[in-house]
Amino acid sequence: MPVRSTKPYLIRAIHEWCSESGLTPYLSVKVDESTRVPIEYVKNGEIVLNVSYDATKRLTIGNDVIQFSARFSGASRECSVPIPAVLGIFARENGQGLFFAPEEAPAEAVNPEAPAGPDEPAPPPNGKPRLQVIK
User: Is 18 left (phi over 0), alpha (psi -120 to 50) or beta?
Assistant: First the structure.
């Protein structure tokens, strides 16, 4: 029987500690093709998300994925973050929390052939950005 990762349990524990201490839990995430977050807020392949109960709706921190709905610039967006994509969880007010070594998402979680739905932005392209002049 494979040993379960302690990562989701630690994430839940720090989230609970922040919430009970009156602190704001923030999640640092490495964005890849299996991560569903608003792409326009991603910088250098990473995003930091406020995952407090006040900022999210239907927050679920599962063993494989963290899911919630949140408002970005007034628009409600569904977010889904695989546990391997989480780089850390910390309190905004004092920076205390836990940070993890970057992991690769399991192969079955990544589906590059899946088309992006209407609510789902397309994943960011790989490689260096480039501009193309159209006449």
Answer: alpha
CA proximity to 97, closest of 16, 5, 43: 16
Reported as a single tens digit per residue, the pLDDT across 81-95 is: 999 999 999 999 999
Task: Name the region of 47 (left: φ>0; alpha: ψ -120 to 50; beta: rest).
Answer: beta
In this structure, which amino acid lies at residue 20? E
Q: What is the reported pLDDT for 103?
A: 77
The dihedral sign for the CA sequence 120, 125, 129, 131: negative
On whether the CB atoms of residues 39 and 121 are closer than 8 A, the answer is yes
- Do 65 and 58 meet the contact criterion of CB atoms below 8 Å apart? no
pLDDT band at 125; cut points 50, 70, 90 = low
Report helix, strand or coil for 95: coil
